[in-house]
Amino acid sequence: MVEIFLAFLGSICPGVIYNVEKRNLMWVGFGGMLGWITYRTFNEITKSLVLASFLGAVIVGIYSESVARLLKAPATIFSVPGIIPLVPGIAAYSTIQHVAENQLYEAASKGIETMSGAGAIAFGILLASAVFRLTKKLKKRGPNPS
C-alpha cells in the first residue's frame, strides 16, 4: 500500500515541476499509480523487468490518452509524469556501482537490463499513443463504402 501511495506522489511531484494545472494533478497521480500497480503485478508474475515495464507503460499510455480526451488536455502531461515511477533507477545505479567495483560482466548485464527497461517504457507509451491516433483517424474517415 505504501508503494502505491509513493507511486502516486512520485507522479504528482514531476507534474508540479512540469507546471501541470492543479485541476489535473490528481489525474497525473492516478496514472503513475496505475502504471506502478501494473508493473508490480506483472513483475511478480513474470519476474521480468522489461515485460513488466512495457505493460506498465502501456497502461499509463492508455490512461493518459483516455484522460486527455476527457479533460481536453494534452496526453503528455499525464504520460510523462506517469512513467516516472517505472524508470529503472535502481538498475542504472547498480550498473554504475558494478563499473566502479570493476565487475564488468555484472555491469554489462545490469546495463542491458536498464536500457531494455527504458526502451520498453518508451515503446509502451508509443504503442498506446499510436493505437489511439489510428482509431481516431479511422473514426474520422467513417465507414468504408464497399
From TrEMBL:
InterPro entries: ThrE_2 (IPR024528), ThrE_Dicarb/AminoAcid_Exp (IPR050539). This is Threonine/Serine exporter ThrE domain-containing protein. It is a multi-pass membrane protein. It is found in: Cell membrane. GO terms for cellular component: plasma membrane. Keywords: Cell inner membrane, Cell membrane, Membrane, Transmembrane, Transmembrane helix. The keyword Transmembrane applies. Its main location: membrane. The chain crosses the membrane at residues 48-64, 76-96, 116-134. It comes from the Bacteria. Belongs to the ThrE exporter (TC 2.A.79) family. GO terms for biological process: succinate transport. Pfam families: ThrE_2 (PF12821). Residues 4-130 form the Threonine/Serine exporter ThrE domain.
